[in-house]
Amino acid sequence: MPADRPVEASAEARALRVPLDDFTLSRLDIHTIEYAEDLLTRACMRGRGFDWELLPPPARTDTDPLHRRRYGVIEPEVAERYGYHVPPPAPDQQAREQVWRRREALPPAEQRAAYGPDGQGGCRETARTRLAQGIPAVDQQQLNGYIGDTFEASQRVPAVVAAFGAWSACMKAGGFTYRTPLDAANDRAWASSARPAPREIAVAVADVVCKRATGLVATWSAADQAVQLAAIAAHRTDFARFRQARDAELRAARQVIGQTGPPSKSTT
User: Which is nearest to 16 in space by CA: 59, 62, 57, 58?
Assistant: First the structure.
C-alpha cells in the first residue's frame, strides 16, 4: 500500500457536525462559489481574446470533511500511516491544485487580463463584483471570533476536562505524556521532518486508541454542540445576518452555474 495514497474519510469523520455549520460556508460551498467565479471570469477573458481554464465543477461529496481533524486525529488508518502529518489531498483536490499552479504560469498578457496590472483587478475582480451584488455585508472577523471562542469554551466544559484527564492517563500508561489531544497534535517535534517518524506514529496511534477508550470525541462533540447553540441563542441577530449572507452568496453562485455551467457532478 503506497504511503502517500489518500485515506478515504471514515464514517465517524463524516458524521461530525457543529451548529455553526449552518452559518458558515463548507468546503463544497466554497468550491461552488469559486466555480461560479470561474465561469464569469471565463466569459470576461473570452471577451478580451483569451481562454480561461475552469476549476473542476463542485462535487456532491466532500472527500476531506471539514471537521475530520477538529478533535485531532481520530481515524486509525490516518494515525498509522501519517501520524499527525496531513495526508496527501484526494484526487479531486489535487486536480484543483494543478489548475491553480497552471494559473501562476500564465503568460504576462493573460495575467494582466485576469488579475489586472497590480494583481487586484482584471476579470477576476469583475467576476467577484458581479457575484457580490445584493449580498449583505458581514463582519467575517466577528464570525471567526464566534468560531474560535466557542471551540475554546468547549475545552473548558467540566465533562471535557474530565475526558482530557482520562485520555491523558491512558496516554501516560502507554509511555506518552500529554495533557490534551491538541498538545499531542501540536508537538513541535513533528514539524522537524516531512514524513512522520516512528515515535510520531506511535503517539498518534495511541492517541486514537485512547480517544476511543475514553469516549473523548463523543464527549467533546456534545460539549461543542451545547456551547455553540448557547452562543447562537445569545446572539440571534448576528447569526441571522450570517445565515442571510451565506445563503445569498450561494444562491448567486448557483444561479450563475445554472445559467452558464454544467450541474455539480459526483465524485463517487
Answer: 62
Q: How far apart are CA 254 and CA 32, in angstroms?
A: 7
Helix (H) or strand (E) holding 184: helix 181-185
From CA 2, how far away is CA 142, in angstroms rounded? 43
Q: How far apart are CA 230 and CA 222, in angstroms?
A: 12
Helix axes 236-260, 140-154, angle to 10 degrees: 120
Residues 188 and 26: their CA atoms lie apart, in Å, by: 29
Q: What is the mean pLDDT of residues 213-235?
A: 98
| Residue 37: alpha-carbon gap to chain centroid | 19
State the DSSP H helix or E strand holding residue 178, giving kind and residue range, or none if neither. none
| Residue 170 cell numbers, joined | 491512558
DSSP state for residue 193 in the 8-state scheme: S
Dihedral of the alpha carbons of 203, 205, 207, 208, in degrees to the nearest 10:
170
List C-alpha distances in Å: 97 to 229, 250, 251: 35, 22, 25
Grid coordinates given for 132 = 457580490
Strand partners, 72: 70
**What cell numbers appear for 23 in the block?**
452559518
Hey, which bits of the chain come out as E strands? none
Q: What does pTM read for this prediction?
A: 0.88
Q: How far apart, in whole angstroms, are the C-alpha atoms of residue 122 and residue 116?
A: 4
Continuous segment of H or E residues that includes residue 257:
helix 236-260
Measured CA to CA, the distance from residue 210 to residue 167 in angstroms comes to 6
| Crossing angle (nearest 10°) for helices 140-154 and 216-234 | 140
Q: Tell me the CA end-to-end span of the chain in Å, nearest whole number.
A: 21
Structure confidence by residue, pLDDT tens digits, 182-218 = 999 999 999 999 999 999 999 999 999 999 999 999 9
